[in-house]
DNA sequence: CGCGTGATTGAGGTCGGTCAAACACTGTGG
DNA sequence: CCACAGTGTTTGACCGACCTCAATCACGCG
């Protein structure tokens, strides 16, 4: 079935932090509330780390000694059942945070899909920062809350949508995150998409060809997809 | 298919708040961090409201002008697709919070399953409280984070588990919340359970009879269920 | 008692999974 | 430049878990 193998957990190289001015700021959306002209206390204490394609960042069950924020690239978060079935909890892009579960162990695994740069903030330093800067907690609350909203949408998708509806919803969600432009990057494999939508690789592939022959999407080079009729896709996705 | 009808949105009666000493305190778990001997700033400004069985508390799309905390009873949160398909996001019990999505509109509906008592905290007052009492944000962050953890478990369930595995996981999760004692209350209907697990009423019913004939559970009076072999259920649930 | 609602059971259909083969792409070595 | 292997995607044929439709059952209530 799935292999789900990833290479060693050590980052390719660790850049010395802090380097507050060098790193790109997350976009200004409700879910990523650190605006460019806003002080970013996390950046000051974060280490920058670079991970290769398919490299593990942390694994479910490991001691959760740090939180991460994605600067560049794409990360998958997933949970496994003992027999190997995998559910991808989410795909993270620039600005997203990982590991904000205040448990002593990570409750899911994280792997880089593309070569990725992340900020790493040790848990102890985050706690200290939360003490010295109370407004940070409200920001993190806001971030976590919008993650929760996304999770609830995903529950509706997983529990109640058909294969084609799931695929349309997925493409639209990616498109909304990417912002303007009808072409979106799909660096993840069909298997990743399947494990995110509760389907199989084959069903995802059939869905893509159906959307292609219906002239709703077009496959571009480099694994990019152009949404030819976002309205029809939204109709298919049954709103959301 | 489903009816999903609920009666008027007005609470049966509104009790004058605050009445800090009269209301039961949530239990001491990581997800409900307001311990009994701990100051509870929310209780001080909350209005107590009582809702009848099957009564709506708020609906998806309404202006989100308040957050709620359940004092007693059971609440269902759900999202609907335009054609009426329903996904129950969660069942809330004493101590759980609702409406903590910092959007201007509720993103799901809430209805009382049993007669329920909830604390109602207007959004504006909550904001003020967050300003005057920064530690509250960290508590809410902790609450929201554990809701997110539960949501991720539910994604794994919805995306990757079989009908029987879903049912076993559901019963175990309820049992863990209820704490000691192998009997758990199931005030919600088979249809509610189905809409929570991404199944149909019939499949849930068949699952219950299969668990009964396998001597893993026993149905007691009053819609209560006794877990006869939690170990075997956990095995079935494929961990989690 | 008769009715209404929800739960259970049964029979049959279907969407998506499983298994398998063909295809496409990429890099590697001759 | 091609041959080839290796990996991931697509397509096909078949199957089964779950859904659909429908009848029966159980329980509470006027």
Automatic annotation (TrEMBL), chains A, B:
Record-given protein name: Helix-turn-helix domain-containing protein
One protein family per Pfam: cNMP_binding
Organism: Azospirillum isscasi
PROSITE patterns: CNMP_BINDING_3, HTH_CRP_2
Every Cyclic nucleotide-binding domain range: 51-99
Alphabetized UniProt keyword annotations: DNA-binding, Transcription, Transcription regulation
SUPFAM superfamilies: cAMP-binding domain-like, Winged helix' DNA-binding domain
Keyword Nucleotide-binding found: no
Keyword Transcription regulation on entry: yes
């Amino acid at each position: 079935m799935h292999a789900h193998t990833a290479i060693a957990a050590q980052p390719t190289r660790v850049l010395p932090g802090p380097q507050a001015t060098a790193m790109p700021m997350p976009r200004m959306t409700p879910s990523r509330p650190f605006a460019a002209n806003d002080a970013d206390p996390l950046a000051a204490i974060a280490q920058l780390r670079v991970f290769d394609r398919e490299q593990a960042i942390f694994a479910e069950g490991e001691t959760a000694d740090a939180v991460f924020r994605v600067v560049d690239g794409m990360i998958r978060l997933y949970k496994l059942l003992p027999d190997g079935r995998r559910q991808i909890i989410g795909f993270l892009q620039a600005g997203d945070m990982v590991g904000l579960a205040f448990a002593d162990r990570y409750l899911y695994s994280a792997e880089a899909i593309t070569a990725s740069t992340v900020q790493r903030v040790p848990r102890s330093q985050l706690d200290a920062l939360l003490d010295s800067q109370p407004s940070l907690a409200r920001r993190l609350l806001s971030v976590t809350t919008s993650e929760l909203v996304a999770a609830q949408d995903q529950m509706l998708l997983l529990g109640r949508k058909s294969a084609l509806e799931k695929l349309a919803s997925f493409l639209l969600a990616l498109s909304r995150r990417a912002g303007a432009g009808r072409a979106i990057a799909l660096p993840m494999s069909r298997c990743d998409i399947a494990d995110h939508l509760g389907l199989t690789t084959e069903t995802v592939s059939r869905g893509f060809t159906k959307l292609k022959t219906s002239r709703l999407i077009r496959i571009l080079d480099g694994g990019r997809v152009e949404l030819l009729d976002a309205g029809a896709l939204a109709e298919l996705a049954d709103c959301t």
